[in-house]
From TrEMBL:
NCBIfam families assigned: rRNA_mod_RlmN
Keyword Ribonucleoprotein included in the entry's annotation: no
Keywords recorded for this protein, A-Z: 4Fe-4S, Cytoplasm, Disulfide bond, Iron, Iron-sulfur, Metal-binding, Methyltransferase, rRNA processing, S-adenosyl-L-methionine, Transferase, tRNA processing
Family: Belongs to the radical SAM superfamily. RlmN family.
Protein name per its UniProtKB record: Probable dual-specificity RNA methyltransferase RlmN
Taxonomic classification: Bacteria, Bacillati, Bacillota, Bacilli, Bacillales
Originating species: Neobacillus massiliamazoniensis
Length: 364
């Protein structure tokens, strides 16, 4: 596992195609323009077309010369995602199944909150982390997404919202895949959506979640970005965590907690812990007490997630009264805790579920 996780190169089939223009950070685009005999300030104009006007062809970039437009289209792909399925839930949640250039499919979810519209993006086709409760990991990892393919998910959802004059106000990297296993592309994605000349999504409106790839947590802490950071914890002790999440065999709970402390010290930010409640497995008041001890004194918040039913997995839901008892036990110890509100329950909105269904149909 350790060895596997240290390699983050993309699969070779991805190298044969042109780079997505959405993969370029502003400075990278400036550098490319300079190297190609163009003025760097054109980068802002290009960003404006891509992220403010949200055009879908290079041809439409009408304040650029024809020769620059040709250069751009010769070098770059204007990544478009083909919408295969668009499901709208009764609570307004919209789930997209997008097809990529090589035929793989990914999921993106738009969630409606009182405070705005939030998009949940996917970072990999599949996942190799192997969490025992998760649908995303069932078929293993097919490939990493290029930064532009992650950016394009936000742009495409924004284009759908343009019809009603609405805006994507926040982004969560909690879709399919382990973002820290595709670290460089994830980081580029964060920077690209954050530029005020681009989509202008504020750092505090972006959340990234990891299953706990410890060396990357240190690296991420050193980036010192003011974004929201979440750890999928799911267990109060290392034995139970290893049973639920094989990643814990490579990066033990103790080491994870050390990395978390480093992150909090370095960034001054509060951290979130996701704790899925799996009936009869990790959801007793004793587990809550043990969790309170583990998190004592940490600047953190716990998000309790009632398990999403996955047909291939045999976890069952914790009854409501037990969820409240768990929450109460944490509160008693002064831990900040919330129970996650569920979105799109009628449309398989939990990560990996729609794609898993589609994949099953493909292999039938
Ligand atoms: N790979 C990253 C990003 C995924 S975020 C991570 O692990 O953090 C999605 C969250 O939903 C994670 O906390 C994940 O552990 C959790 N999750 C996955 N399958 C679930 C299920 N069936 N029920 C409840 N939570 C689940």
């Amino acid at each position: 596992m350790l060895e596997q996780l240290n390699t983050t190169e993309t699969k070779s089939e991805n190298d044969s195609k042109k780079t997505s223009i959405y993969s370029l950070q502003l400075q990278q685009l400036k550098d490319w323009l300079s190297e190609n005999g163009e003025k760097p300030f054109r980068a802002e104009q290009i960003y404006d077309w891509l992220y403010k006007k949200r055009i879908s062809t290079f041809e439409e970039m009408s304040n650029l010369s024809k020769s620059l437009r040709d250069k751009l289209s010769n070098h770059f792909e204007l990544t478009t995602l083909k919408t295969v399925i668009k499901q709208t839930s009764s609570d307004g949640t919209i789930k997209f199944l997008f097809e990529l250039f090589d035929g793989y499919s990914i999921e993106t979810v738009l969630m409606r909150h009182d405070y705005g519209n939030s998009v949940c993006v996917t970072t990999q086709v599949g996942c190799r982390i192997g969490c025992t409760f998760c649908a995303s990991t069932l078929g293993g990892l097919k490939r990493h997404l290029e930064a532009g393919e992650i950016v394009a998910q936000v742009v495409t959802v924004q284009q759908a919202l343009d019809e009603t004059d609405e805006r994507v106000s926040s982004v969560v990297i909690m879709g399919i895949g382990e973002p820290f296993d595709n670290y460089d592309n994830m980081l580029s994605f964060l920077k690209i959506i954050n530029y005020d000349t681009g989509l202008n999504i504020g750092a505090r409106h972006i959340t990234v979640s990891t299953s706990g790839i410890v060396p990357k947590i240190y690296q991420f802490a050193d980036e010192n970005m003011q974004i929201n950071f979440a750890i999928s914890l799911h267990a109060p002790n290392t034995e139970l965590r290893s049973r639920l999440m094989p990643i814990n065999k490579a990066y033990k709970l103790d080491d994870l907690m050390k990395a978390v402390r480093y992150y909090i010290d370095k960034t001054g930010r509060r951290i979130s812990f996701e704790y899925g409640l799996f009936g009869g497995v990790n959801d007793s008041v004793e587990h809550a007490e043990e969790l309170a001890v583990l998190l004592k004194g940490l600047k953190c918040h716990v998000n309790l997630i009632p398990v999403n039913y996955v047909p291939e997995r045999d976890y069952v839901r914790t009854p409501k009264d037990k969820i409240f008892a768990f929450e109460k036990a944490l509160k008693k110890h002064g831990i900040n805790v919330t129970i996650r509100r569920e979105h799109g329950h009628d449309i398989d909105a939990a990560c990996g579920q729609l794609r898993a269904k589609e994949r099953k149909e493909e292999t039938r």
